[in-house]
Amino acid sequence: MAKQAPGVRIDGLTVVYKTPAGELPAVRDVSMELAAGTITGIVGESGSGKSTLAFSLLNAVQPPGRISAGSVEIDDLGNVVSFQGEQLRKARGAHIGYVFQAAQNSLNPLKTVGKQLLDLGRSHGVEDLRGLVREAKELLGRMGLDGARVLDSHQHELSGGMRQRVGIMLALVLNAHLVVLDEPTTALDMITQATILRIIREVHAERGLTTMIITHDIGVVAEVADRLAVMYGGRIVEQGPTREVLADPQHPYTRGLIRAIPRLTGDINQAQALPGRPPTLTTVPKEGCVFRERCSLRMDVCDTVDPEAIPHGDRIIACHAVKVKEHA
Amino acid sequence: MISGKGITKTFKQRGSVLAGRTVQALRGVDFQIPKGGAASFIGESGCGKTTLGRIIAGLETYDTGEITIDGVSVTSPKDRLFRKVQMIHQDPYSALNPTRTIHQTLRAPLELRAKQTRRPKSWIDERAHEVLGLVGLDPASVIGRYPHQLSGGMRQRVVIARALTVDPEMLVADEATSMIDVSLRLGILALLKDLRERLGVSVLFITHDVATARYIGDDGELYVIYRGQVIERGSVDTIISDPVHPYTQSLLSAIPVLHGLEEPGPEPVVPTEALDAGHEDAGCLFARRCPFRTEECETGRPVLGLTEGVPQEHACFHPKSRDVVATHLGRV
């Protein structure tokens, strides 16, 4: 069966975690579409819910968390939120590839990469294991590594950048066409990061993938993503084409975030830290806008009414102030 | 003034597989950091920047060379003068004892300090409040709390406050912002800059992110370190706008471009190979990865120094400024 890049529609997704204070939402009423064949970047600080959103794509949210509402509809596969057991296990790997955060440490230190590859093949019932190894070597070669040598290596013999590429190989080798990369370059050096980002872009185009990248680093998204979604306190506050969002951010959080990045050129005093601190699961406000505590455009309505995500052309923005500006 | 001359350090590797292999972490490094001044060490992981920072903070020994603090030579990490240098670590989550309140954390060094300087007991709590105020925290609300009740950015401020309890002359910040949320990073950088200006504390900033080096002050010096050798050294602005060493250029080229806000530099430099520290070459340490290498580079090793027409010191046989840095399109 020749597969192609699937489109993904996330609708009204809410993920809650059980805590002593009751069930608290880590992701709240998130709707977005990953168009087939595109790279989407999810940007957010720690606790924004970005990793939880990524896990929901595989229906892999671990207890005490659970998906309490919404659906994740993947082309040729269906709504993964309703999947269970064996059906779910088969979808992961074969349809959806996942490169874990800190892929540098997600390999088994006792087994060679090759042995782990064969384990992966067997657990997914691959009959042609030789073909799988051939495919793995090809992928590693494509990413600038000596495939035979890498498959013979233990994780401690590989550098951080090499392990990251092994992680990408393991996510793609079963021919998945939807790939989720969680913080693919964290803890890597600048030069290695640039290499990995180039590889992600090239492999994405060559194999015809739909890719989602989760990161806290807007620079990473700016380099690779077609579309960008900004998460804050479990909500997507702004999404749209990457270049447009960067050039003309609308939501006050997106603006603040972009202004807070130290840059190499330009006026040094223009960069400013955002006041306040990002909310955690327990400090996210129960009602009203999640960002209002740090917002310079705060109005009365922000305290009581959670702003809806409203399309403005290519952009979707959840902010009362942006709406007011447009009507004025 | 803290300065070093010809600092070398070699690590012997242990374990069954790598036993006997040695790694030259530092190959004769010179540095000078004036009182109240600022310097940044940048380079890839494994280049020796952290080792050098630890040596300066008195947490690591060195093999040869000399370090002087205000003209007095210091050799042993036990030397009391090293107290004048305090280290801010990368991870504020593991730098604070989780079973102690912020008050207890600050009290321990202050008690010692009070004894040394024969100050009354009441001074201890006063000073604890004062240092918390200096780092931009509200003393009353923070002092009774435990580290887990604070955000990463607040914890890093507490770590800085703790360093200030001993009246240091220099703070060594080793990747001090890399584990902090993006929206709060700039606040920590601004704080370090502010402490320099208000207290005259010098700051040594160790990072792989060149852009953050700009934020400790425009009089700061930048040291680009590659495999234990300083390969380019000069003012931050000069090196960012006119880098001459191909390694510095590849570091700058690798910084992500904010497309839509910035244009990429027209002459990016990409190393021809990945870092392989295993080889000991006779020539330039970067030659193997350098796209511009010549025969000369493979036989002789350039030393750090000035050449005609280049304002900064560099260690390259063929220094040439290249336009590698992304330019801001001037919006926002």
TrEMBL record, chain A:
Keyword Transferase in record: no
Keywords: ATP-binding, Nucleotide-binding, Transport
Domain spans labelled ABC transporter: 8-258
CDD domains: ABC_NikE_OppD_transporters
GO biological process, one term: peptide transport
Keyword Nucleotide-binding in record: yes
Name this protein carries in UniProt: Peptide/nickel transport system ATP-binding protein
From TrEMBL, chain B:
GO molecular function: ATP binding; ATP hydrolysis activity
CDD domains (alphabetical): ABC_NikE_OppD_transporters
Family annotation (SMART domains): AAA
GO biological process: peptide transport; transmembrane transport
Top-level taxon of origin: Bacteria
Keywords, sorted A to Z: ATP-binding, Nucleotide-binding, Transport
Gene3D superfamilies the record matches: P-loop containing nucleotide triphosphate hydrolases (3.40.50.300)
SUPFAM superfamilies (alphabetical): P-loop containing nucleoside triphosphate hydrolases
Limits of the ABC transporter domain: 2-252
InterPro entries: AAA+_ATPase, ABC_transp_ATP-bind, ABC_transporter-like_ATP-bd, ABC_transporter-like_CS, Oligopep_ABC_C, P-loop_NTPase
Family classification: Belongs to the ABC transporter superfamily.
Name of this chain's protein: Peptide/nickel transport system ATP-binding protein
Organism: Nonomuraea dietziae
